Amino acid sequence: MKHHLIMCSYTCEYVYGDGLVKSIPDLKDITVYPLPENIFTYDTILMKGNNSGNTINLTCCVDKENNGYSVFLNTSAHPYLIEGHQDPANKLCYIFNYHVENELGETATCIVKNQLNRSLTSVLKISYIDENRVKCNSPPYGVGEEGTISTITCAPDEAGNIIAICRNNTWTKIKEKCKNKNLIMLLDNVKNINNNNTPEPIDIALPKAVEELVNFSVDGTTNIISPGNLETTIEILEQFANSQISSVNSSTMKNFLTIADLLLEDTNHTNQANWTEANSYDGSSRLLQSLENFAKKYKPQKYGSYNISTNNIELQGVMLNTSNEIPTFEKTFFQNNTVRISKIRSNSVNGDILIVSIGIKKLASLLPLNISNDAKNTNNFSVNGILISTTVNEGITIESISNSFQKNNATLNDVNCVFWNFTNLVWKSDDCLPEQGSTGDIINCTCKHLTSFSILMSYKPIGDIMVLNWITYIGLGVSIGSLLLCIFIEKLVWKVVTKNKTSYIRHVSIVNIAISLLIADIWFIIGIAIQDGKNIVDRNDAACNTATFFIHFFYLALFFWMFVLGLFLFYRLILVFHDISRTAMVIIAFSLGYGSPFIIAIITIAVTLPHRYKQTDACWLNWHDSKALLAFVIPALVIIAANFIFLLVVVIKIMRPAVGERPRQDEKNTMVQIIRSVAILTPLLGITWAFGVATIVGGDQLAFHVIFTILNAFQGLFILIFATLLDSKVRQALKQKRLLSMLTTKSTKTTTSQPSSGPLSRAVDNVFNRKGQSHGVSDGIHSSSNVSSRAYSVLS
Fold this sequence. Notes:
Shape: globular
Oligomer: single chain
Number of strands: 31
Number of helices: 20
Structural class: alpha+beta
Distance between the termini: 82 Å
Strand order of the largest sheet: 4-11-10-6-7
């Protein structure tokens, strides 16, 4: 039992005649008992008649036996507190002598206080009904009319209550939540162990607690499958599984499996109803997850295979040293059910390899019959086999896992291979398919998960993903290197290329496009690492949700900065005579570039968490369950469309310039660079994500995934080439810094050659007055001939 120790300091002071004060401190320990977690109050219904002036007993119960607090009753008719006395037959309950003054009915409040005067309250009602309306009148529920709800206390050794309803002149029990006091005390003890509030270390105290629970469960005196005890036992097992103990031995593992086996042993009609009620608090799913988590704590005393079995649960596994060659893992459960892993990779040179599989009877049928829409033919769905769970320790990855199941009902032939999703509490078939040749009584299933860029848009499984992995990893490396080089070059030439406002906002946009894509790529790699570090049913959801949020945010930021680039191009060419300050331009740019995607990303995660935010097998926005992916696709496609419109308007403006709408020579060149950036990068992004949409429409077509992966993975290289290296001002600035030889070819070093201009370049020259009829003032850094040459070389 958990006690709170509060150190109180007392000081004794002596005052002498000369005013000198002497003090002697004294320290005392005061034990403050915690308040109970629950108070159970019971409404009292009396038949009208001769109640006035009589004394009746009102009852208030708590869920923990404790002498460290006081229990009072306060009623509307009595302003003072009535102190209760402990029921000798049930020390969890307190009885109050209540004096009835009239039969009008009133409410009373049960108050529990500890030494710190902290309190917990619960309300009960006292009501009266006419004798001619009484339909039910029998102990222990008392009197009531049709539809009346009556609540009574549990047995003396139990906490909780029993609820019955008056129906057809008979009290019918509708709910029972009675919890054995010993189980409650054991649960408190386990919580204290996990909070390090026990004198023994956890590696000694926790195995003792597991043994105590198994002894309590098998002695036959307590029904641990009753509704209240079932809930408490599941919570205790959950506390065991989530504890910080590093490892357990075979005896403790056997005890844990024995307890779980007892919960599954008798699934008659009554216990099936108890499990149905347990699913209101996800009881069956929590039991399954506890089995998986505790199985990972088992460390055999020697290398090799091991087996621990009960009537309904078989645990089999293998522990190897990383110096050993990793063989194929294959185990058989209950004769005709198997699990097989052939591609096992270790990412660690130190430590042991631990692979654990658990075959479980009956539990699969106790899980809710919820199935996601990705499975086919979900009508009349039923679980038709045992449940097999496989886990691996950190540093081990598997590409696929094959399971063979023997049908419980051989007459059912329409097969779905599914796995249990702990987050959404549904059966899902993502990347789980029946193998060819699955006929008769045995069904073979293979499950995979994706680890390439195609997962950004694809929710359907594809056959060959190795090529996508190689493209992804190579492309990401090239892209990240290109983006770092792009940012480095922009830093080198920043002062030279940002002399006017138009050039300044262009390079601000390019730098932030590069930064956004760089961070998005890094988070994408983190997302891959998170998924590869777990098997297909053991997900680190918090880390994966974080990766999904930042990937979503920074990919959106990439598009919004492209939109900023197009918007300022539109502004500078259409609103020639309108001018805004550099500060205002920067505020608008950053508000659009980062503010808008942040709002979209926050709204997306707020609306779709906790169960429908990310995909089950990838750190990316969910498509199938919640369509959260639309929060990326729609803004991206809208921005691409908007930039195409900006380009169309700009081309029309170039072909038909108005009188006086000619910018300064230096700004002319910058706007040419912006036109080029938007004109190249917008179609490139548009084509890239058009194939992304194609992976949704035709998700099983490998060609769509390959093209999308190539275009997406190499975006950083495209930005370096088209937004930075092809900018003549950047190359000229690099030449001045003696870096041109490392970044350009001999043909780009020669600035005196004059290639012939094409139709588009001549049209741009018309609007910018290329023949020397300038209406602006040069910035004085370069001659007009050099500026014209730079603009011409970019457009060629």
